[in-house]
């Protein structure tokens, strides 16, 4: 039986958890990673060099590599606050930025780095141009810039992206549409709904490909609600937002964690953006998706609630195996 082709779309700290476990499976993996981050080190580098932000790509690169732990620590090392112009920059971001400049694009840099780190899968930025994320709130207010969205008090109605440095229509990176169309499964998330997942899906070419692909589309629903994005959201609300941005019900399968996060477990000063556990609305999910997989996907670590990558991937591989 041939290897299943699985494309994972997202960004932030969510999809690396899935990719780190998925790389151990006998699968042909493609990661499509958001390029709308404009905060922190990524924001500074994209502003000064006009390149696609490297931070989310860096985390995906590490997750999909079997590099020794010591190499990973070097690549992820973040310069101290007192280090002048280097302060706050992870060494890996600077390496990606340097190779991007040398090769003419972040897309080309990632193709070199996947070979450098002996990654068998493929990593593509969702666009080869840095994108600016726009959020339109239910009161009509618009916030421009991914890093500013959570600061506005209100409920987001929808988001869209524009090219940061020109007025052209945002385009998907080369080979991204091909990967989506040829996949057996598309995995969305986990990750910040409006700022990690949707910035990829609202690129017109990616949206059109998701509407046309014969692949199974699976969404790994978040465990916790997020300040400034999904406050008071149920799992069904997450799916409704995704389907609404795509124009019709595209999500085939939703993976939902039903294990409780222990009371007062979350360390608020480290994970202050995460509020309470996502409530379940299985009736609402059944109206929007063909299949709901509810199980214990919880991993508790260092005062945070995360997805257990191995448990999620076990379900994904079982699901895609039935499609082959």
From TrEMBL:
MF (Gene Ontology): LPPG:FO 2-phospho-L-lactate transferase activity
Entry annotated with the keyword Hydrolase: no
Transmembrane segments: none
Keywords: Cytoplasm, Transferase
Pfam families with a match to the protein in the record: CofD
InterPro entries from the UniProt entry: CofD, CofD-like_dom_sf, Gluconeogen_factor
Keyword presence, Iron: no
Gene3D superfamilies per UniProt: CofD-like domains
GO biological process terms, semicolon-separated: regulation of cell shape
Location, primary (coarse class): cytoplasm
Domain of life, per lineage: Bacteria
Subcellular localization(s) per the UniProt record: Cytoplasm
SUPFAM superfamilies noted in UniProt: CofD-like
GO CC, one annotated term: cytoplasm
Function: Required for morphogenesis under gluconeogenic growth conditions.
Family the entry assigns: Belongs to the gluconeogenesis factor family.
PANTHER family in alphabetical order: GLUCONEOGENESIS FACTOR-RELATED, UNCHARACTERIZED PROTEIN YVCK-RELATED
Name recorded for this polypeptide: Putative gluconeogenesis factor
Protein's organism: Streptococcus hyointestinalis
């Amino acid at each position: 039986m041939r290897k299943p082709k699985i494309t994972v779309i997202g960004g932030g700290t969510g999809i690396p958890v899935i990719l780190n476990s998925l790389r151990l499976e006998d699968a042909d993996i493609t990661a499509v990673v958001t390029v709308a981050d404009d905060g922190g080190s990524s924001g500074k580098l994209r502003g000064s060099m006009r390149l696609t932000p490297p931070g989310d790509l860096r985390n995906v690169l590490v997750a999909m590599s079997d590099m020794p732990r010591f190499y990973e620590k070097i690549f992820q090392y973040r310069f101290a606050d007192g280090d002048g112009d280097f302060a706050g920059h992870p060494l890996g971001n600077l390496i990606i930025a340097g190779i991007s400049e040398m090769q003419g694009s972040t897309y080309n840099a990632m193709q070199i780095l996947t070979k450098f780190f002996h990654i068998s899968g493929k990593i593509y930025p969702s666009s080869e141009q840095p994108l600016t994320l726009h959020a339109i709130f239910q009161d009509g207010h618009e916030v421009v810039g991914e890093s500013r969205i959570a600061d506005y008090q209100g409920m987001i109605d929808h988001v869209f992206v524009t090219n940061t440095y020109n007025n052209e229509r945002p385009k998907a990176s080369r080979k991204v549409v091909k990967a989506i169309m040829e996949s057996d499964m598309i995995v969305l998330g986990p990750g910040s709904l409006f700022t990690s997942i949707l910035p990829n899906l609202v690129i017109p070419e990616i949206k059109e490909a998701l509407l046309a692909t014969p692949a199974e589309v699976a969404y790994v629903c978040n465990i916790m609600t997020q300040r400034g994005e999904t406050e008071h959201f149920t799992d069904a609300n997450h799916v409704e937002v995704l389907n609404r941005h795509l124009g019709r019900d595209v999500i085939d399968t939703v993976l939902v964690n039903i294990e409780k996060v222990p009371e007062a477990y979350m360390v608020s000063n480290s994970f202050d953006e995460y509020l309470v556990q996502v409530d379940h609305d299985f009736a609402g999910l059944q109206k929007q998706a063909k299949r709901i997989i509810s199980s214990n996907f919880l991993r508790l670590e260092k005062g945070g609630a995360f997805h257990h990558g191995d448990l999620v991937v076990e379900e994904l591989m079982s699901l895609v195996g039935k499609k082959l």
